[in-house]
Structures are given as C-alpha cells and as structure tokens.
Specification:
Order of helices and strands: HHHEHEHHEEHEHHEHE
Strand content: 15-25%
Structural class: alpha/beta
Number of helices: 10
Largest sheet: 7 strands, mixed
Strand order of the largest sheet: 3-2-1-4-5-7-6
Number of strands: 7
Helix content: 40-55%
Distance between the termini: 54 Å
Shape: globular
Length: 275
C-alpha cells in the first residue's frame, strides 16, 4: 500500500509539475514574471533585480573566508542580469573596478537607476563615482586580455549551454593567479520540486518544458571541463535535498547517469584557480 501511495503521489505531482512547466514556457514572459512573479506559486524572482546585496554578501563571505583580497582589484561578474546592481554593490564595498558580462539579458535602465540610487545613498558615494567603476559588456572581447584578478558568478553556470567556451573566455581574460568564486544552483529554478526535471528525456525537456535557459547540466560535467582547461576546483559549500531526490530516484531518465554522485547536488559554492 505504501509503495502504491508513493507512486500515486509522484504521478499527481508530475501532472502538476508538467502543467505549470507548460504554462511557464509558453505563457509567462520574463517581463510578466518580473512584475508579477511574487504572486506566482513557487516562482523565485532573480535576487539581483531586487536585493543585489544578498548576492554580494555571499561573494564577500567566501572571499574573506579564503583570504582573497578583493579591494582595488579588477573583478569580473558573469551574468549580471537586467541591471548592473551587483557591480555597483561590489565596487562600492571594495573600491574595485568591475566588469559585468551579460550577452543575453536586455539592460533595464529604469530599474538600474533605482538600484544605483539605493547603493549611492547606502555608501554615501556619488552615483557618478560608482557608475564610472562599473563596465557592462556583451562579450569577453571587450575586456582587456589577461586583466582580471577575481571572477564571480551566482546562479549562472547552470544556464550556460556552451560551458567549455565560457571557461576558455575566462582563461583568456584572467590573470594566471586568478581566483574564481562560482555559486551554482543545479535544482529546478521555478518550482518546489527541485529534481523532477531529471525524469524527462532531453527531447521532451527542450521541446516542451525548458523555459529556454535551464540546461540540467550536473556539477560533475562542469568539474570535468574545468579540469580539462587546467583549472583546479575546491568545493566550499554543498547542499542536497536527499528526501526530495529519493522521490524521483527510480524514475530518473536514462539520459542521466543514476550512479553519478553529483546528481543530487542542489546548490554549490566552488573556488576555482589555475593549476
């Protein structure tokens, strides 16, 4: 009876999951979710659109814990989103020049002005002084070669389809002694079901359920690519939701390796440096 109930509950949750995923992919635009996402069940609005200090707090915490000085450095953030707010926050705290690479998301000048004003008041710095220290670019070619001291990203790696190209670009723009702090989230980003998306084939996922930027790449794949490009990686923090993972373990699609020890990794903080 318990086995039947488990299967029945999983069946119901899958119907609910697929229904919401279809709505997310074909009905909800990014603009709609930015305005009304807080009213959509389980949807998580991008933090950098509302509270960039939360992201930068985490950057600062792990950099300090690992004795990495970010003051007066050249810092690169990958995937800043609609605004430059994290760049403003980083520069205001560290006095560093900040480059922001964002090739896909369209810049929102109105939202950016509001967040720049907030950072300016918080740190008692002029808006012009902060903005002059932050440069937003669409591709890595706009960043001086071998100039970057520190690279950071938050919930970006799991969205990159051409990850090996990204690592190559980071290597080309960074100094030999560069330190990279990547915070990646390998769970489903939209729902309370963090691992349900592992049940679907690549064909079904990409045609019907993927909103367009969730690759389902696992941590092990990223680690292999870093290794291939002569980077060493240290896991500073790791989160798993084993109870949720167990609910779908037997239904994981064959396009994934069930024996992969990183399959259930949810959120991870990694420090990357040259070998």
């Amino acid at each position: 009876m318990k086995t039947f109930l488990k299967k029945y509950n999983l069946f119901l949750s899958n119907i609910y999951y697929v229904s919401l995923r279809l709505v997310r992919k074909f009905i909800f635009s990014d603009e709609f979710l930015l305005k009304y996402g807080k009213y959509v069940p389980y949807y998580r609005i991008n933090t950098n659109q509302l509270r960039p200090e939360v992201i930068v707090n985490e950057y600062e915490k792990y950099l300090k814990e690992n004795k990495i000085n970010w003051e007066g450095q050249k810092i690169l953030e990958v995937g800043c989103g609609k605004t430059n707010s994290t760049g403003y926050e980083i520069s205001a705290r560290s006095g560093s020049e900040v480059f922001l690479v964002e090739p896909f998301v369209i810049f929102d000048q109105i939202a950016d002005d509001i967040l720049l004003e907030q950072v300016s008041k918080k740190y008692n710095l002029s808006k012009e002084a902060i903005a002059n220290m932050v440069t937003r670019v669409k591709n890595f070619k706009e960043i001086p070669h071998k100039s970057i001291d520190i690279v950071v990203s938050s919930s970006v790696l799991e969205h990159v389809n051409t990850f090996e190209k990204l690592v190559e670009d980071l290597a080309n723009t960074s100094k030999a002694e560069v330190k990279m702090l990547h915070i990646a989230d390998y769970r489903d980003h939209f729902f309370k079901y963090p691992y349900h998306f592992l049940q679907f084939s690549n064909n079904v996922w990409n045609k019907f359920l993927n909103p367009g930027d969730l690759t389902r790449t696992r941590l092990s794949e990223h680690l292999k690519i870093f290794e291939k490009n002569k980077f060493k990686t240290e896991i500073l923090h790791e989160e798993r939701q084993e109870e949720e993972f167990e609910k779908i373990r037997q239904n994981i699609n064959r396009c994934f390796d069930r024996n992969n020890p990183t399959l259930s990794v949810g959120r991870v903080v990694m420090l990357v440096s040259k070998k």
